[in-house]
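Tokens help. One example:
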Amino acid sequence: VQLQASGGGLVQAGGSLTLSCAASGNIFSISYMGWTRQAPGKQREVVATIASGGSTDYLDSVKGRFAISRDNGKNTVTLQMNSVEPEDTGVYYCSAKGEYHDGPGLADFHIWGQGTQVTVSS
């Protein structure tokens, strides 16, 4: 199973950016998908997560500005970033947790994508 993220780039403060991530492989189910970011000199933090049923959770600093959504049929997750701030700058990683077909049975996976750079200019 692997994740492929896209959509990062340079955006001015107050603008919008959309990140997308697609999971591929011999997937049986994905329970959680999410986005984590790491700013220079700071620890990685979970920005948003979404469960298969649609329940979401957000980092306090992005509530009301970011929206996470997923397409269970396509195994994709999207992060809509609005009213971005310079503090949102960092490398964004998508993640997924679930089960995949492993021979006659199932095995767990918890993986991260390669990261996409988001830079917000003031």
